[in-house]
Design brief:
Elements: E1 8-9, E2 16-17, H1 20-31, E3 36-37, E4 44-45, H2 48-59, E5 64-65, E6 72-73, H3 76-87, E7 92-93, E8 100-101, H4 104-115, E9 120-121, E10 128-129, H5 132-143, E11 149-150, E12 157-158, H6 161-172, E13 177-178, E14 185-186, H7 189-200, E15 205-206, E16 213-214, H8 217-228, E17 233-234, E18 241-242, H9 245-256, E19 261-262, E20 269-270, H10 273-284, E21 289-290, E22 297-298, H11 301-312, E23 318-319, E24 326-327, H12 330-341, E25 346-347, E26 354-355, H13 358-364
């Protein structure tokens, strides 16, 4: 790309454009700005041309007509694809066997003959299929006649009643498995087993590179990316990559989504329903965390852990090896150690600032956001 075009460069992802208008349209992907609204269904778009195309869904207008058979289309691209029926043009060629296709989707499906890729997996019997039509045919033919167990809430199918029962707990909130130490409840027994390692202190999963140990295999897998540099979670909008799915989803909500959750008490805004749910406890005074052997209740789980350690001698204190300060959970100890070491791993994606903790980084992001977390209280709230 020449020097003139490279002047129009996106500061978020580095993509270059030939003109300032193209760059302006592109930036709306990052900002989430959609200034053009459909007057029929209120759907919003980044460009006026996209709104015009969308409006044809409601009006039924089909201005692109085939001069061979009088078929009409709402956009030019479907017309161009249709014309290949008449011309016999097949521009998509397989580089392995020279077979040709009129549509790119036909080539994509054909390539699986050579690669052996079967992306469609049946959740009931784990068989895999090359095409979605083969997968749906298999489901109807093999499983629909066996009367599988279906969830009355979402229609998802299961092979057995026990699997269905565990799944239904997601919808009903039923948690049948209770921790005997802190009374926390879980939907699945496997979740309770993993949780119990917090109290036992057992860490069977060891890193062979730095000898760190972890309670769960998933935590070890995530830790190994520190050594390998692997970032498997990639954002399709700006091509940034992330080590963990939580960092990826946080990025998506913060950078690309303009949807927010507001508190009905103070109108403070949050990027996720979970953050809002935690915040509302401040107003309602809800204290969901308790210990079966005393009447004390707590708003936050870390308060319960601290109480168990101080009042009931349950669990194990975590101590800083530098200043001997004690902590009830590993996250707070890790953040504390970073302050001794001067390490600030949480780096802002929009400026050079860095922070000791993710919470501090989230708070900092308000500087770059248009979201106003506090509003005038003159509405009778």
């Amino acid at each position: 790309m020449d020097g003139h075009s490279s002047r129009y460069k996106c500061t978020e992802c580095g993509k270059c454009f030939y003109g300032n208008q193209e760059l302006t349209f592109h930036r709306r992907i990052h900002s989430g700005e959609k200034p053009f609204e459909c007057t029929v269904c209120s759907k919003r778009f980044t460009k006026s041309t996209t709104l015009v195309r969308h409006s044809r869904i409601h009006s039924g207008e089909k201005p692109y007509k085939c001069h061979e058979c009088d078929k009409a289309f709402s956009e030019s691209a479907p017309l161009n694809r249709h014309m290949r029926v008449h011309t016999g043009d097949k521009p998509y060629k397989c580089h392995t066997c020279d077979k040709r296709f009129s549509l790119s989707g036909g080539l994509t499906t054909h390539m699986r003959v050579h690669t052996g890729d079967k992306p469609y997996k049946c959740s009931l019997c784990n068989k895999r299929f090359t095409t979605s039509s083969h997968f749906h045919s298999h489901t109807r033919r093999i499983h629909m006649n066996r009367r599988p167990y279906d969830c009355r809430y979402c229609g998802k199918l299961f092979k057995g009643s026990s699997e269905l029962k565990r799944h239904v707990g997601i919808h009903t909130g039923e948690k049948s498995f209770e921790c005997t130490v802190c009374s926390r409840r879980f939907t699945r027994s496997s979740d309770l087993v993993r949780h119990s390692s917090i109290h036992s202190g057992e860490k069977p999963y060891k890193c062979h590179l730095c000898d760190k140990a972890f309670s769960h295999s998933g935590t070890l897998t995530t830790h190994m990316r520190v050594h390998t540099g692997d970032k498997p979670y990639k954002c399709s909008l700006c091509n940034k990559s992330f080590t963990t799915s939580s960092h990826f989803h946080s990025h998506t909500r913060r950078v690309h989504m303009n949807r927010s959750y507001d508190c009905r008490f103070c109108r403070k805004l949050f990027k996720s329903s979970l953050e809002l749910k935690r915040h509302v406890r401040i107003h309602t005074g809800a204290k969901p965390y308790s210990y079966r052997h005393c009447s004390d209740r707590f708003t936050w789980d870390h308060q319960l852990k601290s109480h168990l350690l101080k009042s009931h001698n349950e669990g194990t204190w975590l101590m800083c090896y530098i200043c001997q300060k004690k902590f009830s959970n590993s996250g707070r100890l890790k953040e504390h150690l970073r302050r001794h070491e001067g390490v600030k791993p949480c780096v802002c994606s929009e400026c050079p600032e860095s922070f000791y903790s993710a919470d501090a980084l989230i708070h900092h992001h308000l500087v770059h956001s248009d979201v106003k977390h506090f509003c005038c209280g003159s509405h009778g709230i």
